[in-house]
Amino acid sequence: MHDPPETTPATTPAAGEAPDARPRVLIVDDDRFMVDVLVGAIRPEYRPMVAHSGEQALKAARATPAPDLILLDVVMPEMDGHAVCRQLQADEQTRAIPVIFLTAKSAVEDETRGLALGAVDYIAKPISPPIVRARIRTHLTLRQALRRLEEQNLALLEFDRVKNRFLGMAAHDLRNPLTFIRGMSELLQGTELPEEKKCKFLQSIHDVSHQMLTLVNDLLDVAAIESGHLDLELQSCDLAALVAERAEIVALGAREKGIVLVVEADAVPSLLLDPGRIGQVIDNLLTNAVKFSQPGTTVWVRTLVAADRVQVVVRDQGPGLSPEDLRRIFGAFQRLSARPTGNERSTGLGLSIAKKIVDAHGGELRVASVVGAGSTFTLAFAPVHPAA
Predict the structure, then answer these.
(1) Residue 163: helix, strand or coil by DSSP?
(2) What is the C-alpha separation between 331 and 334, in angstroms, rounded?
(3) What is the domain range of residue 169?
(4) Which residue, 100, 97, 77, is CA-closest to 89?
């Protein structure tokens, strides 16, 4: 005797109970003997659900989780299978669920009508269990393939959208610096200037060209990430030494703003990382902390092992992040409410790139913040595969 099938969608498994991963097949038939036959035919490969009327079928199809496929009897009282199929097809929520008609009718026009209503197949009664299972398997496979194609299409559309944003951003953010560099170079070429003035112009050209290079590198990084071509060169990495090295460089800019950078690079296990990419992440976290901090404040960076994870923690005394900023912090092209304190430029890409780099390493990048009290960014790696 079979276990009773579900008459409603699956419920959440009890604590400790593994979820049932079998595809859900909704059997719709007013003949209870036929329901028992179908339930026996599709177990244990599929998870049967049962409806004895058209109304029950529509309710089950619109519930969560929805069935993955519907076996639908054509001849039923009150609402026949054709009417049920018509309503399923008219509803955006249920339109994609494959429907296979079950019927004792064998006329070609009956099959044609059912297929025209949106059914994917027809199975004649009396049924053959192997045929039922084979048809279900075929159409579930086709549905999975269609989903993958749709996901790939959405990914391509998203890539095109991001690419167009790149082009627009590059054109906008590079035009003004290029105009500035051209103007400065023309003055240097065509005007007699004191040596001190020339040095000042050259320094300005250098600074602006550095900003442009940063933007171009960010755009190239995002393009590589979005296209799935972020290549990592993994090697043994002393994270504490890397933090100390990057902090020494950032400390120069911090001192110019009157900000103290405190480094506590405690020894941690060496890990297999891409030092160039992780150095890029550390640079971003440190420069952001300095960029959004007021003169006279302190930025701390520390390496440590906590909860079996190698961590880099960067803490500042900046303005903090609002709940809305925290939700958007790792998105591309995000302009947050906090503004740089020294008129530094920001592409809105740095943290998005950093998060993707860390994800590619199997690590975690998280942030905690209190408005008015500063932010803490934590970069964490589980030392599951420490370097030799």
Answers:
(1) helix
(2) 6
(3) 157-226
(4) 97
pLDDT tens track, the chain, 388 positions:
444 455 544 444 555 556 778 899 999 999 999 999 999 999 888 999 999 999 999 999 999 889 999 999 998 988 999 999 999 999 989 998 999 998 876 655 666 777 888 888 888 888 889 999 999 999 988 888 888 877 777 666 666 676 666 666 666 666 767 777 888 888 888 777 788 888 888 888 887 787 677 767 766 776 677 666 777 889 999 999 999 999 998 888 899 899 999 999 888 999 999 998 899 899 989 988 998 889 999 999 999 998 889 999 999 998 888 888 888 888 766 666 667 776 666 656 778 888 988 998 999 999 999 898 899 999 999 875 544 4
Of 208, 226, 244, the last residue of a domain is: 226
Structure-token pair, residue 190: 């065509």
Report how many domains make up the chain: 3
* 332 in the same domain as 194: no
For residue 34, being part of any structural domain is answered with yes
203 lies in the same domain as 243: no
pTM of the model: 0.51
Q: Dihedral (C-alpha) 228, 230, 236, 239: value to the nearest 10 degrees?
A: -110
